[in-house]
Amino acid sequence: MGWGYRKSIRLGKGVRLNVSKRGIGVSAGVKGFRVGTGPSGSRIRATLPGTGLYYEKRLGSGTKKKHSSAQFLKEVNPQTSFTGANEVQEYEFLLHAISTVHTEPVKSVNWVKLSTERAPFSKNAAGPNEQQAIAKLNNFKPSFLDKLFSRTEARRAILQEEILNAKIADRELTSDRERKTQLANRVLAHEGQALIDALKEVAPFQSILRLGGLITAYITDSDIINIEFNTNSETVIPTETKTLTTAGNVSVRKMGVNRHNELLYSFVTGGAITIAKECFAVLPVNEIYVHCVDTLINPSTGREEENVYLSALFDREQVETIVYEKIDPGETLKLFKHEMRFLKTKGFQPVTKLEGD
Predict the structure, then answer these.
(1) Across all residues in the chain, what is the average pLDDT?
(2) How many angstroms separate the CA atoms of 140 and 151, rounded?
(3) Burial environment of residue 90 by CB neighbours within 10 A (0 to 12, 13 to 18, 19 or more)
(4) Buried (b) or exposed (e) across 317-338, using 16+ Cβ within 10 A?
(5) FRET partner for 260 with CA separation of 20 to 30 A, picked from 138, 220, 232, 245?
(6) Which residues have a Cβ under 8 Å from the Cβ of 39 and sit 6 or more positions away?
(7) CA–centroid distance for 304 within its chain
(8) Would you state the pLDDT for residue 65?
(9) Tally of CA atoms within 13 A in the half-sphere of 86 that contains its CB
(10) How far is Cα 35 from Cα 226, in angstroms, rounded to an integer?
(11) Are 303 and 320 in contact (CB under 8 A)?
């Protein structure tokens, strides 16, 4: 049969951390009734004190749904603050975000519609902000205190000033609409600078930027837009692992080389595909170059050097057929012309940038 081990640690308010040979579990409840989760799944148990009789029902198999002990502790006792659990969950969320950056949904921009949209109101008519301010003035009735302290006229003057400010706000609305209409027409005419301006206006790539990636867009002589994606790996990819100990503390250890490179691979390949997907959602173009670079210190010279780790040419037709929630970004890249060298033990190796710059 072999040796077994089991230890129960009281965490307060009816919550226990259960440690056994099979793994770590958590249970909560009162005498005679407990709810728990562990390596074998979740369960409820009701006992009849003093008899040894109990009723137990399993709520599900531990292999069906991953449910961390830290999550369960929060669910059964939401009033309890677990600093260590929060830190580990934030770390796990970061790893998930890095690995699934390519699954972020995108919203297309209809430049044809934007180019034909009318002004929000007639040029000689009062705008919505001015109308609201005028109505406020017309509906103003001085209160007893206004009359008592002779401040009725001062209140009216404030409302008059609000009308002037409202006119300025309405002019800005008109100006903004005209600017967007002009930009839409320039984009539809495929002006190179207009494509860059459109990216600035719409501000895509937020999932990458939030993680710490850096993005620059430019147009080449071939009139194909290029996106340079600086992975900023020293900031984005963690170098340590974080786990929760049985005592509720955070255990921090150096991340293995293979795991670090695996995360970087997911971020680079997934990020490149994300950039292509979002560009085609924003811009009326059929091809786009994406170049993934990183600035690292060369140990032999001590100088910072920028290397290209992935360079790919994406086409709209192929990109729009991909089901992003189900892909392996590294495999998806094989559908496109690209340059990339990656070794699991050594990471990315410098490659030559594809023509397009």
Answers:
(1) 84
(2) 13
(3) exposed
(4) eebeebebeebebeebbebbeb
(5) 245
(6) 20, 22, 23, 24, 25, 62
(7) 29
(8) 45
(9) 5
(10) 55
(11) no
